[in-house]
Amino acid sequence: MTAVESSPRAPHRLRHDQVDTRVNLSADPSQPLQLANPIVTASGCFGSGRELQRFFDIANLGAVVVKSLTVEPRDGLPTPRMAETASGMLNAIGLQNPGIEAWVATELPWLHGLGVPVIVSITGKTVAEYRELAEHLRDQPGVVAIEANISCPNVEDRNVVFACRQDATRKAIQQVTSVSTVPVFAKLTPDVTDIVAIAKAAVAGGASGVSLVNTLLGMAIDAEFRRPKLAAVTGGLSGPAIKPVALRAVHQVHQALPDLPIIGMGGVRSVTDVVEFLLAGANAVAVGTATFANPMVTLELTQGLSRWCAERGIATAAELRGALDW
Amino acid sequence: MSSSRGRAPSVQGRADGPLRAQCEVLAYQRIGNYHSLTFVAPEMAERARPGQFVSVAVKGEGTLLRRPFSIYAVSRHGPWAGTIEIVFDVVGPGTRYLSKLAKHSSVDIVGPLGRSFPMPQQAVDCLLVGGGYGAAPLLFLAQRLQQSSLRVNIVLGAATQNRLFNIIEAKRLSASSAFTTEDGSFGIHGRVTDVLERMLAGGTVGVIYACGPMPMLAAVTAIAREHRVAVQVAVEEAMACGVGVCMTCVLPVRRDRRTANLRACVEGPVFNGKTILWERLGRQPDDEVASGEEATAQGWA
After folding, report:
1. Residue B149 in this model has a pLDDT that exceeds 70
2. Which of A11, A55, A107, B64 has the least C-beta neighbours within 10 A?
3. pTM, to two decimals
4. What fold, for B11-113?
């Protein structure tokens, strides 16, 4: 293969508006979860939505995944909360959020009013909190799915990383699915020996799909001052540095559970990154850290994906899903 | 902007608030120990107010995030339409990249961002206190205060003479000025706080505006409180996004009888100094993502 041979599939070009970008995030034919396009925001990289709405209309996105909500409001961790690393960044925010009650009262109606599908990320300290959080979201207009964040490595309570153990994963997800009126995605950490086993545990708990992957736990050190760069010492690594790990996780889970809907993410910043995740088996692709570098990147990716498909004669974005030749 | 290189529109955004634009580099110069870049950015220049900042996309080994810089100067007219000027120190690969940008090259800029310095509601004298090149946004402010016919006094301090930012401009834009260096290489041997008592003695100063390292801002706020003078400070915090989504640049602020971690990028960078819980501030960042100042390494002015 030569470098010139960029499109090996003899393209019959389309106009970009001829491309059907819709994707379905549900494996259940009786309850489809259709998004206008596969681009969604990654939790924690979206704020309340009002911040990005100052730049563009977020209703153009497939869906928005909001910052993880907890039962009580949280102030988060002390600063410094962030350190830039080679092609990535570490963060240790500590889940600063207004609490689910305040969010449901003020932010959700605003998002719903924009007409954008809302996927609500929730995270609990205990199994019982997951149930309580899901109860707040029952029959809330605008909420199309719940993303149960069972893997955030930044919370001060370091003993509880549900997604590192199969039984804890199943139990936490069970609490959410037992009360939820919408599909539930389990957001998993790649910091495990066997992510397929954890994904299967989530499915056993009733998860409709999985979100792959959360940040990897990392650390940065200031050599001159001989101290960790983050106040919390360790934090979640995100950005292009983790993309190969994320692609591997999506691929492995898709191979083991081909029908399981997957929201793929990890270092996505270009259209080809999006396509790579779709090919690995993702139904939708979340964009996180890239938004920090460019607040308009998600909008640009929705437009760029149509063009990418059109130039290659690909009529539907959905046909890219899992279409890896190997 | 300058040319029609096709592709996406060169300016994206809404009718007000921040914009994203590909901006042409019009000028690069050295100001003392610091570097300044001037970009062609007519829409941003029109919207920019003192205390606000822009975030600039940089390239360099492993860099991912934009770098925030407070706005030093804007020109809304002139042969190049509107321009924005920023000041920086080379402290890492991002600022090194900016210091080597060729004239007429194109840079991706988002701005103007953040809350600006509020202008006085009454005709009071203003005291501007800057540490290092924290002076930059204050000189922009001084210009606007002068245009409003307010009396401007300026105190600038730094570790040493070549870290004092633009003494000539500071003198030109003020009715009275004082300069301090910690090593005594220029002006008064000491820190800015050593001369504040004297500048406040007349009792005519109604508001202090300050920008510089956090310990300096805390000390200036304490003096303002003693003298019952209003104080508005522009803080610096490490930030990843600059637009309010990442929650990394927070600081504890008292508001509506409770304490909240507010974002320096949207609720700030300008805060009422008396509302910041200085004693609860986290450790300060050392690297350039911090946004501007030579934070901890140089001590403060």
Report:
1. yes
2. A11
3. 0.90
4. Elongation Factor Tu (Ef-tu); domain 3 (2.40.30)
